[in-house]
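Human: Not sure, check this?
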Amino acid sequence: MKKLDILTIGGIILGMGLVVWGIAMGGNFMVFVHVPSMLITVGGSFGALLVNFQLNQMRQVVKLTMQVIIEKVQEPAKLRELFFRLAQKARREGLLALEDDLSEIDDPFLREALQKVIDGMDPEHIRDVMETEIDALAQRHQLGQSLFRTWGSLAPAFGMVGTLIGLVQMLVNLDNPDAIGSGMAVALLTTFYGALLANLILIPIAGKLEIRSEAEIAYKEMILHGILAIQAGVNPRILQDKIRAFLSPQERAQADDKKESAERDELLAWD
């Protein structure tokens, strides 16, 4: 399931809004709008990014940005319940009976791992293949984080380049007051644009991608542990306790409350 990440959008809007409000409170907002400075900072840093990365890596910029805005929701508590049900079915009817549940599983990683169990593959082979896939996923995620962190370091640098350009223009035209004003605008605004772009957008996006990556890797490791436990014939209750270690304290509390509620309903049904 995917949902819009309100925090990312709201944070950028809030940050930009406060900057604009601060500028407007201090005077004329249009003074801070300077197209040449924007081109030097944004265009120059993006050009350097093209030099640093390969074409197939740069194609991921839009995709990675969408991953920040659109969050892929992981639901460990529901996965725990699914594993409990699958473990019960496997102990009653055997591993082959789980093939009927494949069509109900949306997660490709989980479906692939469960298919390998149904096919009777060796547990070590399953672990090796799925861990390799997790490592490859982590490397792809690190590339995306590196891309935005690199861009975040280049933007202020090109802000300084713009500052030097502005200072040179100002010093060359000391006898022309109009040129001095234009040169000072480039000198100061490029640094402003570079700092704003890096610290409000690019570096925070890299941080958000890192958090998402850690969560997704932990979720896939949880899947791998659960699948191997089902294959080994682990008691469903023990499997639940094992998977519980992957849950956050809040998710554990919710899962425990749900478990207690189910047990109460079961006792009432017997009465």
